[in-house]
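TA notes. Do not distribute before section.
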Amino acid sequence: MGIPARADKLLIVNADDFGLTPGINDGIRRAHLDGIVTSASLMVDRPGSADAARSLTGLPRLGVGIHVALTEESTAPVMDFEDASGVQREIERQVERFVALTKRTPSHVDSHHHVHRDPRLAPLFQEAAAALDVPLRDHSAAAHCGTFYGVWDDGLSHPEWIAYENLARLLAEEVEGPVTELGCHPGFPEIDFVSDYASERALEVETLCDARLPDLLRELGFRLVDFRALERSPA
């Protein structure tokens, strides 16, 4: 995947967990339509997967990739990671499910809880992305920035880390380009939503829709795009 010729710093703002629940979908759609989210990663077997896919006809500017899920919300694996052929079949099944739901191929590949970074799984994800000829997170022209997040090593909620002021600092000091994927997790969780990352999602929506962001991005020289803006590798 190459970088387009223009000199802008390109910023992909990608929302993980699209399809997790209808409420999460609502937050992602809001952060796209009224905010700076340009891309989302779809989970294909969750309660909100069909809702997310149906809504894509009204979201032509939203790039959508696949968020391959091989773990529970608790991060526990749902299969044996030592079983390479089994994992490969599961990745292929989820890609097929993505195409069936959305009637399109993914714009990119990544994974729930970043399991594609596991040395046992990385080659399988690289193979899947190569077969689709799309970027794989951490293996493309787009550098991944995952520090816009409201719960860190102490396990406590830190809303200040996902406030506008910290996002502005992050964009000014930590995102250097030329192409960056800023990860985020916006959403409006249902009352019965169980996750270590819940109330923070609505705060992310608020920050990502802050009216000051367009001027800030222009000032910092960013151009918002999604993974479809990356040129395909030469044949």
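Switch to the second chain here.
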Amino acid sequence: MTRWITSCAVRAGALGRAACSGDNRVALTRWLFLRLLGAVYLIAFVSLWTQLDGLIGSRGILPAAQFLDAVRGSREPLEAVRLVPTLAWLSPGDLTLHLLCGAGTAMALLLLAGIAPAAMLAGLWLSYLSLTAVGQSFLSFQWDILLLEAGFLAVFAAPPAWRSRAGRDAPPAAAVVWLFRWLVFRLMFSSGAVKLLSQDPVWRDLTALTYHYQTQPLPVWVSWHAHHLPDWFQVATCALVFVIELAVPWLVFGPRRARFAAGAVFAGFQALIAATGNYTFFNLLTAILCLWLLDDAAWPAALRRRLGPIEEARPRGRWPSWLLGPVAASLALLSWAPVSHLIPPLAGRPAWLSGIHRTLGPLRLANSYGLFAVMTTTRPEIIVEGSSDGEVWLPYEFAYKPGELTERPRFVAPHQPRLDWQMWFAALGSYRNHPWFLRFAQRLLQGSPDVLALLELNPFPEAPPRYIRGVLYEYRFSDPDTKRATGAWWERRRLGLYCPILTLPDTSSP
């Protein structure tokens, strides 16, 4: 225990000293990163804003105000705020939610323009944290927490000035640069490690990609073609995934050319994922994080000349070392907890560190990552149907998730249709484990316009149906012959009801 604390103290001291110095080689890289991060924030806020009322508004599926009331009624005030850190406590209504989205959109645009970048980033982080804290199931994705972790760290990478200019900004502290590289390592390595630690047989025998393109949440039309590639290709590319996620991340800590190679591999990997599936802004965010593996000399000379030579920074353009040093050391220590169990030399973190990580967990400052630890090998799909008489059933059509067999799978990223995504998770389990689904059905029975706006087609435009049911099907991609003959991208077989037939209580009797 004493040895572990001493080791951490040495590392923290080194980070603290590093935080006082700058790295002139990444000033332009930082300038580009901050603007691209502003673009990701803009996408995230606008995408959510278009769905806000139907998801967590007062007439939505999981109203934020009701959620806060439930937390307030079961926890002490300070504990409630710790567990749900949101500005919505000040006024838990629809107006507050819209103000948070509007403020986030405005601050993202100001960040893109280089106006007060540190202040804008602090406001963006607080606004997005406030929304994710009350978003419940609909804002619990890994890209949401990755944006919060990267966004908080970016506050201290940004120059605390009123206007940002690449050639005049103080360079970012070396400690912050290394914390970003550590984040890239954790993100990529964790994604590979969880696949092995899960002991999922299809990852272990390298057949996972023979299922992935068909069973992922929101496939695209390219997924159909990728699914029909030869088995040997699927096995080879699955092995390549492990190389990219388990071996290449170690190059992050290597010399300059090794880092460049890692960044290029990671960016290419994200491009391939984006080309074969809809993963919202995750691929873009991951790719721009890889910018921290580069230095200014990696950019074309024309770009460097356009933005001007790096000038000697004035003291007011730097974060003070008395603040940056402790912040960097604390974040380094905190980020140790979610990854240490994945790397044997780092295993055995003390209980007190785990306790601190749990206490600060709601702030999303350091997170666990890793997608598709267990590969789904079949594709159950819920078709929601309504009926006015219990005899004739009509399907509600979603905009992006599979439904109609001849509908071509569409690209929608970087926008995230969050209800469509949640329907994928719901189909993998029971409706009892996804109580939001019953609330969704209730809103359809009530004819909530905000919830209906989340759908592509409402088959009951005049009045809501009397009954709602979910029918479970197994979907699979059609084979090339079937597609040529019928134009169908999918085939399906009925498995049964996903949940009992639902109706609203009869309130007509006295």
